[in-house]
């Protein structure tokens, strides 16, 4: 196993420094051209790869271009347009209902506050943070997706388990100027190297400071299970 830095703050800064060097162009991978498209894409990305979402939204955004378009679309029609997405039926319902509220309560504009966004169906704090950061240039939190959840635990940065608790923990540790980029760096590393089932510890730039490193480590701190 690797040996983490003495404090969680030092460990976090070292992780950021190394991952910035490894992924200098790290950024959001969902494709969108406006706030509504961003909101739709993030709702669809729950438990689904960004690659799959991007393939689906390429034609979706040509067909539906306004909140009214989604709100007025029959449920069956919208669900059929999303049928390659995980849980497409539920997500079609969330999108229709969210767009109804956007039309009725927000003059057709995607809200720009955490409270208003999380009132929309299918929108939790993670989704709201993405929309605020990349749609409104408002940074008030850290996006905790499955990669961030897994890597921060594996690296000994947090012992929290729930995304909401992890985010609150990270807000005290991650330098504020990195609240957005921290997520992108961990997502890139989670996809490329520190995968859920079979992380490539031998080629990992963080192996020597990772307490979950498989070389002689016994436990995956992300799950608490033996390797």
Descriptive report:
Its cofactor is [4Fe-4S] cluster. This protein is mainly alpha-helical and 227 residues long. The protein has helices spanning 8-22, 35-44, 50-63, 67-72, 75-81, 88-105, 114-118, 125-135, 146-154, 163-171, 179-192; strands spanning 219-220, 225-226. The N and C termini lie close together (12 Å). The relative contact order is 0.15.
Keywords, please?
single chain, 227 residues, mainly alpha, Endonuclease III, domain 1, 2 domains, two-stranded antiparallel sheet, 11 helices, 2% strand
Determine the CATH superfamily of the largest domain: Helix-hairpin-Helix base-excision DNA repair enzymes (C-terminal)
| Share of helix, binned | 40-55%
Order of helices and strands: HHHHHHHHHHHEE
General form: elongated
The largest β sheet comes out as: 2 strands, antiparallel
Name the beta content range: under 5%
Going by CATH, the architecture of the largest domain would be: Orthogonal Bundle
Counting structural domains, the number is 2
What integer value in Å does the Rg equal? 19 Å
Structural class: mainly alpha
What is the straight-line distance between the termini? 12 Å
Mean pLDDT: 96
Strand arrangement within the widest β-sheet reads: 1-2
Number of helices: 11
Cofactor: [4Fe-4S] cluster
Family: Belongs to the Nth/MutY family.
EC number: 4.2.99.18
Keywords: 4Fe-4S, DNA damage, DNA repair, DNA-binding, Endonuclease, Glycosidase, Hydrolase, Iron, Iron-sulfur, Lyase, Metal-binding, Nuclease
């Amino acid at each position: 196993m690797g040996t983490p830095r003495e404090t969680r703050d030092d460990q976090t800064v070292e992780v950021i420094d190394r991952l910035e060097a490894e992924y200098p162009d790290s950024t959001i991978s969902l494709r969108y051209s406006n706030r509504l498209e961003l909101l739709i894409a993030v709702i669809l990305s729950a438990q689904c790869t960004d690659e799959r979402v991007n393939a689906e939204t390429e034609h979706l955004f040509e067909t539906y271009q306004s909140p009214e378009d989604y709100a007025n679309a029959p449920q069956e029609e919208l669900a059929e347009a999303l049928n390659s997405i995980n849980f497409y039926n539920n997500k079609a319902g969330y999108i229709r209902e969210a767009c109804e509220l956007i039309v009725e309560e927000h003059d057709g504009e995607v809200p720009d506050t955490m409270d208003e966004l999380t009132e929309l169906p299918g929108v939790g704090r993670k989704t709201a943070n993405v929309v605020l950061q990349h749609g409104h240039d408002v940074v008030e939190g850290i996006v905790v997706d499955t990669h961030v959840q897994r890597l921060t635990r594996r690296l000994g940065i947090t012992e929290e388990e729930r995304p909401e608790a992890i985010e609150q923990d990270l807000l005290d540790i991650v330098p504020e100027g990195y609240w957005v980029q921290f997520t992108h760096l961990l997502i890139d590393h989670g996809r490329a190297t520190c995968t859920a089932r079979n992380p490539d510890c031998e080629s990992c730039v963080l192996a020597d400071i990772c307490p979950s490193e498989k070389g002689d480590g016994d436990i995956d701190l992300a799950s608490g299970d033996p390797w």
